[in-house]
Amino acid sequence: MKKVITYGTYDLLHYGHIRLLERAKALGDYLIVGVTSDDYDKSRGKINVQQSLTERIEAVRSTGLADEIIIEEYEGQKIDDIRRYDVDIFTVGSDWVGQFDYLKEYCEVVYLDRTTGISSSELREKEHKIRLGIYGNVDFLLKYVNESTYVNGIEISGVCTENAGIKEKLKSKEISVYEKYEELLKVSDAVYIVTHPKQHYEDVKLALENGKHVICESPIALSISQNQKLQDMAVSSGLILMEAIKTAYSMAYNRMLLLLKTGIIGKLVSVDAVCTSLSNIGASDFSSGLSKEWNSITAWGPTGMLPVFQLLGTAFKSVEMDTLYLDKEKLFDIFTRINFTYDDAVASVKVGKGVKSEGELIISGTKGYIYVPAPWWKTDYFEVRYENQSNNKRYFYQLDGEGIRYELVQFLKAIEIGKDTGYVSKEVSYHISEIMEKFHSEKNVRTLNVEDI
User: Fold this and answer.
1) Exposure of 70 in the CB half-sphere (CA atoms within 13 A)
2) Cα separation values, 225 from 30, 123, 228, Å
3) Cα(first)–Cα(last) distance of the chain, in Å?
4) CA Rg value for the chain
């Protein structure tokens, strides 16, 4: 019996897929079809797959052409499969010519001509695109412009910014620049907001009032009541309001959360997160008006609190903050420590834009601990460590675009199905805003001496 094997994602199964499977089947007596897993697709850069692994497997099975279906989960698996299943022929589409010649050492390799004029990517491209406008003055927004090119179904409708440097960089990208936010809203279906946190509430509110979906850099609002009002507005208007914390979409971070749910380090007792960076900001840069700079608590606080709330929950019994201000007017904290106390656990979050420390994440349990090295918020690696070091294990996951492209994909999917499927829950969002409110009202906050700064 001559065995044939082929692989693919088989997203939005179409006639081209079926023709390729038919021709693969004709090469032998028994056809094995490898369907790539979601994780493996992401590691290869296929981030906008529309269907789940189960749906894609069922689509292949429904063709009646596969004698056996397997799941492709890792690099190098093709060699393992060819040996394991005693395969005679490996086949794939002609757009991969030459790339699998290394398999000729193990079996015959056949490249089949693809059906012209149709592909899953083309089908996704032909769907209605969401016009995404970007509003803000920080350089970080350029990353969203760049990462959007990896996401089928999104096109940048324009950028509204006062930043001359951003405007200059956008010239080469042929992206429209708008002077007024209202003008950007008119040409957009959705907006990404990365204005100063003190503007978020009004900026998000205006977008929702104009019927636009919103993805807003965290924190969405600086009080829990404002956050709830915005979330209620979105729900009543049938719009998506998503909180943007790119770390939530890092594959390593997500796998770590899932692993912890298995009890791999026992009962969780402590979460310690550090997020710091150095800035050249001086007290003379500030006036009594709105600062153009994000202070430490707003810039790093949401990221630092993310693992605390996602692992220990939001029902903390107490919260205490210690902060060091750059200026006597308390416009800008260069360092803040947030201590949470739960019934059965504790957590500490240290954030700073003028104090530097090792940006690591440590999660302690009764059986061991997880260590995520700096910068943990965009890591592709973490370790599970035990008293007996021989039991330690390292986990590696590819991270592309700091998680931004995956965040955009999730935002797009939420819009398409009309349901918020973001990885930052409303509950977490509310309590991030709650901490911001406590900080800015100086509730449970102790101010450190500023005389020597």
Assistant:
1) 18
2) 62, 42, 5
3) 79
4) 25
Please give the Cα distance from 273 to 278 (Å, whole number): 17
Residue closest to 332 by CA, chosen among 133, 164, 443, 196: 196
**Which tokens belong to 94?**
């002609």
**What CA–CA distance (Å, rounded) separates 237 from 234?**
5
Q: 347: which 2 tokens?
A: 């957590």
Give the side-chain half-sphere CA count within 13 A for 271. 25
Q: What is the pLDDT along the chain (453 residues), one digit of tens a residue?
A: 999 999 988 887 888 889 999 999 999 999 999 998 877 656 655 566 777 788 788 889 888 999 999 999 888 899 999 999 999 999 999 888 999 999 999 999 999 987 655 555 554 455 568 999 999 999 989 999 998 888 878 999 999 999 999 998 988 888 999 999 999 999 999 999 999 999 999 999 999 999 999 999 999 999 999 999 999 999 999 999 999 999 999 989 999 999 999 999 999 999 999 999 887 655 444 444 435 678 999 999 999 999 999 999 999 999 999 999 987 778 889 999 999 999 999 999 999 998 999 999 999 999 999 999 999 999 899 999 999 999 999 998 878 778 898 899 889 989 988 988 899 999 999 999 999 999 999 898 999 875 554
CA-CA distance, 403 to 423, in Å (whole number)?
A: 12
Q: How many CB atoms lie within 10 A of CB 68?
A: 12
Kindly state the DSSP code that residue 360 receives in the 8-state scheme: -
- Measured over the CA atoms of residue 381, residue 385, residue 388 and residue 389, the dihedral's sign is positive
As a whole number of angstroms, the distance between CA 287 and CA 377 comes to 32
Pick the closest to residue 312 from 391, 205, 427, 180 (CA basis): 427
Task: Specify the amino acid at residue 331.
Answer: L
